[in-house]
Amino acid sequence: MDKLLITGKKNLKGDINVHGSKNAALPILVSSLLSSEDLTLSNIPNVDDINNMIKLLNGYGAVIKKNKKLITINNKNIKNISADYDIVRKMRASVLILGPLLSRFGYSRISLPGGCAIGTRPIDIHLNGLEKLGVNFKIENGFVIGKVSKKLIGNRIKLPFPSVGATENILMASILAKGETVIQKAAMEPEIEDLGKCLISMGAKIEGLGTDKIYIQGVDSLCKAKHTIIPDRIVAGTFIILAVMLNTDIKIKSLNSDHLGSLIKILKNMGANIDVKKNLIKIKTSKSLKGIKVVTEPYPGFPTDLQAQLMSLMTIVSGKSEIKETVFENRFMHVPELNRLGAKIKLHKDKALIKGNQKFRGAQVMASDLRASVSLVLAALCCEGQTVINRVYHLDRGYEKIEKYLGNLGAKIKRIKS
Predict the structure, then answer these.
(1) 32, 147, 245, 293 - which has most CB atoms within 10 Å?
(2) Which residue in the list 116, 198, 382, 383 is annotated as catalytic?
(3) Is 198 an annotated catalytic residue?
(4) Which pLDDT does position 95 carry in this prediction?
């Protein structure tokens, strides 16, 4: 397994461009299964989760042409088979193929999905929503098997909480369903809005994107389309937090600042010097930074996917900070590793209590999940001495060659192949 060797306390400066959103691209790739016509996508990130999803679609017979960050997918001659377990186990987003396959074929069989070990994240909410459209499910020998007697029928579906994946799955399944579907208490993340806009360009009829109530009128078929993936707000947020930690002048470009409102507000309240424009954020040196209390929440609240990175920052600012995690019950696995680097963080149920004014010092650490991995990278770049981060395959799931991106700013970061 690859490692990253990082020497901290380097003077980073310059510009960094944000790549396309992994969490937007994954369901949009899956949505291509609904159509027999070409779907051309640009600004596709080159990360492992995307490459695994492309392998999964290839397994179904999708014809995919790639040219750098542009791909064209044609699913005219796909076959409805069992999803490859070896791919599904690596990536939770594979559960999203349920909706399109059930809508197009009336049958699907996939392995129970994997992904980061950050909580139970049950798929019951997906299955319950799809059942209201007319699907009968059973779980057998580690597989989820869904059948539709004739055709999916639109319905009013109220989610128990605003699950991003369930909203996406039900949305895609509803596109070819008969009649109207209403998703109440829908998730409002920008990635869902991007999926909806792509589907609309394919001929879907959707209203209410960006709100907690989405209306879908079923159509008979979809058409040829082109779509550009939105910038990755979590990658953008990661680089913004890093620049604040290093207290240096860095420009983060090719982003959508509207998607980063909660983070920007928190950082400004901590004392960060931030100049915000629509597609550009400038981080300037700050006089002093102070601790703050934060609660993770569904969008537009502070994202759980930036919790670990913000915790790294909280360790080195003045005073005490607190993070309450309300989205996933097991998302503090980075805490022992940050403590190994010199943080003083205590856990109390769903809260992390962070003592500020600490100094990071290099050590051997291990990544446990995608966002935990990058929080260690941020800490390592502020460390005295050298840090080795093990199991960085987690990092590669959502960040494009981070050693190259940060190396261009002056970071001393090297990947060690194993």
Answers:
(1) 32
(2) 116
(3) no
(4) 87
